[in-house]
Amino acid sequence: xxxxxxxxxxxxxxxxxxxxxxxxxxxxxxxxxxxxxxxxxxxxxxxxxxxxxxxxxxxxxxxxxxxxxxxxxxxxxxxxxxxxxxxxxxxxxxxxxxxxxxxxxxxxxxxxxxxxxxxxxxxxxxxxxxxxxxxxxxxxxxxxxxxxxxxxxxxxxxxxxxxxxxxxxxxxxxxxxxxxxxxx
Length: 184
What we know:
Elements: H1 5-22, E1 29-31, E2 42-44, H2 48-52, H3 57-81, H4 83-87, H5 94-111, H6 128-151, H7 153-166, E3 168-170, H8 171-183
Antiparallel strand pairs: 1-2, 1-3
Helix pairs in contact: 1-3, 1-7, 3-5, 3-6, 5-6, 7-8
């Protein structure tokens, strides 16, 4: 990946990774390379579904909310540093947005006392009122994501710079880069 796309993708993936770690989510690696799913880069974290599995209702909601904050973090950082890249569609963002919206619907479903399906591929169907609630949850989580990105901007920048030169960072190196940024 060369040229203009590389720094944009680096900031995007760095934000996913840093926000995941700040929320206590494992980020096994961050990569600029193509993945088996055809993505141009990736952060390997557990899905919100797996993070929430086996928890009580309040714990599930926290796990889902954290997952919903990680999903759009890349887009938030990308829009902050490269606003024109978002409108130009330079980095695919629909998946991140769809993930956050789906998680917001899941949160509303759980809060209503419903049981989730046994897999993370089944979409829950909501009433019109629940869909409005899910939109409110989504907007709140997006605002919280923007605040997390702002608060952790130095770490995101440090990780992005390192990622541009190294293509792949494991969690140990990611945590080290975050700690260095926080000391400065």
